[in-house]
Design brief:
By secondary structure, this protein is mainly alpha-helical. 66% of the residues lie in helices and 0% in strands.
Length: 375
């Protein structure tokens, strides 16, 4: 009984001492918890080198091992600068993808070399990577090399591949053989020559990254407008319609009808010049105001020559009209129709309406070429 009582007394004494110790040293068990889970040296490095906010620097510092030092993290920025990246490019890239700092040179260097050998260098290479950092995360053997090889097979030169990638930096993020390959095959089934496919791929690569069902739908629409597969304008008509929703297309038709065109006039113009439907309302208005409002042409006459809408009023149409006015005022040209003259190439226009009258109107060439007419 005495032994039990003694043991109980000892336990109670130990318990009181423990409570007393915790009261006197309340922070002893929380020091570890309150210690910052980040490396202050790395935090300061991220703030000073890449402009990180303090909060972002702290959260980013947790991505790296606690033993890492700024010298360890400098290898990637140094590699990028050696590849032509400016300090701004490096800062932008690291701020977007700080985990690049932990990448190994031997992983990144072959990818940069591939792009350099393709034709990217300096700021062009840096812009490509900064705009699409995932390029450096793609496998070089499983993704980048197959994609570049596939693009070369369609575009036939490194220069053309570079042009396409500059238009759409995200191309290398896709499985191109599956996405672009399917769409190219759809266009080939429409008897579209590879030359036209390649030309559009260089100019509008995003068009080829849509789903095959999306492309088939627009092919079907174009056929309903009367375009024949294999015709020179078929692929451009498909692209033109692909840039518009159904509501936008209907609004375009309403806009043309407001100028006195029938639906058949609009379709006829579309067949002659597919990009005609992509004209802005402002461009349509200024051109129609000039031909119909100022010159007195019937709107249907303009519908027969939709290419007129692609010419600059100030740099081409108005100067040519002034030339005809001068010729007619001097009795040198009275039967020439301006609509026919307006669509001539520059070489043919000069030969027909300017150079042939050099002796009789020596001031005509100077007037046409001068800033007084072209302003």
């Amino acid at each position: 009984m005495y032994s039990l009582s003694k043991n109980t007394f000892v336990l109670r004494k130990c318990f009181r001492e423990l409570i007393c110790f915790q009261t006197l040293v309340p922070f002893s068990t929380t020091v570890t918890q309150d210690q910052p889970p980040h490396n202050y040296v790395i935090v300061n490095y991220l703030i000073n080198s890449f402009g990180f906010t303090k909060d972002k620097a702290i959260s980013t510092s947790k991505l790296f091992p606690p033993t890492i030092t700024p010298s360890n993290l400098n290898s990637v920025p140094d590699l990028l600068k050696q590849s032509g990246f400016s300090d701004t490019h490096v800062k932008n890239l690291i701020s977007r993808r700080p985990k690049f700092l932990s990448c190994k040179d031997q992983t990144l260097k072959p990818k940069l070399t591939l792009l350099q050998e393709l034709g990217f260098s300096g700021s062009a290479l840096a812009d490509l990577i900064v705009n699409n950092p995932t390029i450096l995360l793609r496998g070089i053997d499983t993704s980048l090399i197959p994609n570049v090889s596939f693009l070369k097979s369609l575009l036939h030169s490194d220069e053309n591949v570079v042009k396409a990638l500059k238009k759409c930096c995200w191309l290398l993020s896709f499985d191109l053989q599956k996405i672009i390959g399917y769409n190219v095959e759809i266009l080939r089934q429409c008897s579209i020559p590879d030359k036209q496919i390649s030309h559009l791929l260089i100019k509008q690569p995003r068009f080829f990254t849509q789903s095959p069902d999306w492309l088939k739908n627009h092919v079907s629409q174009v056929e309903k407008f009367g375009f024949k597969r294999g015709s020179g304008s078929f692929i451009y008509a498909v692209y033109a319609l692909s840039t518009m929703t159904k509501a936008t297309l209907e609004a375009k038709f309403d806009m043309y009808k407001s100028y006195g065109w029938s639906e058949s006039d609009i379709v006829s113009a579309f067949r002659k010049a597919p990009s005609f439907l992509q004209l802005s309302e402002q461009k349509l208005k200024t051109t129609m105001d000039f031909f119909v409002g100022e010159l007195g042409y019937d709107p249907k006459d303009i519908a027969l020559k939709p290419s007129l809408f692609f010419f600059s009023l100030d740099k081409k149409l108005k100067p040519r009209h002034e030339v005809l006015k001068i010729l007619k005022s001097r009795g040198l040209e009275s039967k020439c129709d301006f609509l026919s003259v307006a669509i001539l190439s520059e070489k043919r226009f000069l030969k027909r309406c300017v150079l042939r009258y050099v002796e009789k109107a020596p001031d005509l060439q100077e007037a046409y070429m001068g800033s007084s007419i072209r302003s």
